[in-house]
Design brief:
heterodimer; A: 280 residues; alpha+beta; five-stranded mixed beta sheet; two-stranded antiparallel sheet; B: 126 residues; mainly alpha; elongated
């Protein structure tokens, strides 16, 4: 056989053995790999690249605050308790009064806390029925806690005036969990007395009622902008309105109990009167 | 047989979570840090959107159908049903990690059982 014939014979032979089939482990390994890849990608996105929402400008904040604090009475009546969990519990103690001698609403929370983020919305809505806020700024809860980046406001530089009540807010930490403000010893005693676990948010309504925890799940606000949430509050059928306005009505009823139902324009509504009975 | 056993285990865990949901009780599980059953099971994603049906009830239904498919000569239907389960698991893991920033251990147990069934399905039904 000549060298040319040998080469021709070799070229006509198959280059490799036919593949018998994909090995049995390939399919399950591929499924596992896809699942692991998806989970790893989600984890990386969540814990390393999720940016904190940029706080709004002063002008836009003013617009949002005006919407949140200017809801019509019909909205409160339409929502009632909504989907809010009634976590407002009666307490018996010396009436809590503020610097001007009026019944005081005491809030203790923190900027990183997602449950505080959720509760500030209805607290602002409720308190705005009795007085006026200034200095509210937008912020969001921690990026690394549960319900990350829940949009909210901060009370750290807010002021509140009312002819019916005083409002005192203590934000104990910023959104990075660095110390911010401290409760007075008297406030600390109240907090420890009614909330031995020291959980936040803690709200004392004139020492007639206290709230610990969140009246709705913060995930209801997750991923939404401040403008979108404030817009939804105008629709009594929206999930946000049912939670936030419903909670605000509960808080309003608690405050009305502390102010002896003043002002009548707020406290005498059938909705608030019904909720006052529920609060006990 | 293993697939049926895993499906029954999935039904058991799903029933447990459903019963706790209606009882308003949180399962034994850490409640701080990234592992937080309470944050997950009290979120709005713990129920089917627009209803009060707990998501775990869907788990009962999915595993029950799995039992039926694995005990019948269902052919490629098992593979298709497993794919549906896997997509559901990936969606729920996305919700846990991205939206809630919390992992529920009991939910993860269910997810692992679904993935195990998917692995068996792709291995057996080649």
């Amino acid at each position: 056989m000549t060298a040319r014939k040998v080469a021709r014979t070799r070229r006509s032979q198959p280059m490799r053995k036919p593949v018998a089939g994909t090995p049995g482990w390939v399919a399950p390994a591929a499924v596992l790999a896809v699942v692991a890849l998806v989970v790893a990608t989600l984890l990386v996105i969540r814990w390393y690249t999720t940016p904190a929402p940029k706080p709004l400008s002063n002008d836009t904040t003013a617009i949002v605050v005006a919407q949140v604090t200017g809801l019509p009475a019909s909205e409160f009546d339409s929502v009632g308790q909504g989907t809010a969990n009634n976590l407002v519990k009666p307490v018996s103690g010396t009436a809590l009064t503020g610097v001007s001698g009026k019944p005081e609403v005491l809030y203790i929370g923190a900027e990183y806390c997602p449950f505080c983020a959720a509760e500030r919305w209805p607290l602002i809505v409720a308190l705005s029925r009795f007085g006026t806020f200034s200095g509210l700024q937008t912020t969001s809860s921690s990026s690394t806690d549960v319900y990350p980046n829940t949009p909210t406001f901060t009370f750290r530089a807010a002021a509140y005036t009312s002819q019916y009540i005083d409002f005192r807010a203590v934000e104990t930490s910023d959104r990075d969990q660095k110390p911010l403000q401290s409760p007075s010893s008297a406030e600390q005693q109240l907090w420890s007395k009614y909330d031995p676990g020291g959980s936040i948010p803690f709200v004392d309504f004139g020492n007639r009622y206290v709230l610990t925890g969140a009246t709705y799940s913060p995930d209801l606000l997750g991923g939404a902008s401040w403008q979108a949430i404030s817009g939804e509050l105008k629709d009594p059928n929206s999930a946000q309105a049912k939670a936030i306005v419903g909670s605000a009505n509960l808080f309003t009823a608690a405050i009305c109990k502390a102010t002896a139902n003043q002002p009548a324009a707020v406290c005498s509504s059938a909705t608030i009167q019904d909720l006052e009975k529920k609060l006990g | 047989m293993a697939a049926v056993g895993i499906s029954v285990a999935g039904i058991a865990v799903s029933v447990y979570l459903t019963v706790l949901h209606y009882a308003g009780v949180v399962p034994a599980c850490p409640a701080s840090g990234p592992v937080n059953c309470e944050a997950v099971l009290s979120s709005s994603y713990a129920v089917v959107a627009g209803s009060s049906i707990p998501t775990s009830a869907l788990g009962i239904a999915w595993f029950a159908v799995s039992v039926a498919l694995w005990t019948l000569p269902a052919g490629r239907l098992v593979l298709a049903w497993s794919a549906v389960g896997l997509l559901g698991v990936l969606y729920l893991v996305f919700i846990e990690i991205d939206r809630l920033g919390a992992i529920c251990l009991w939910c993860t147990a269910v997810h692992v059982l679904v993935v195990a069934l998917v692995l068996i399905a792709v291995t057996v039904r080649r």
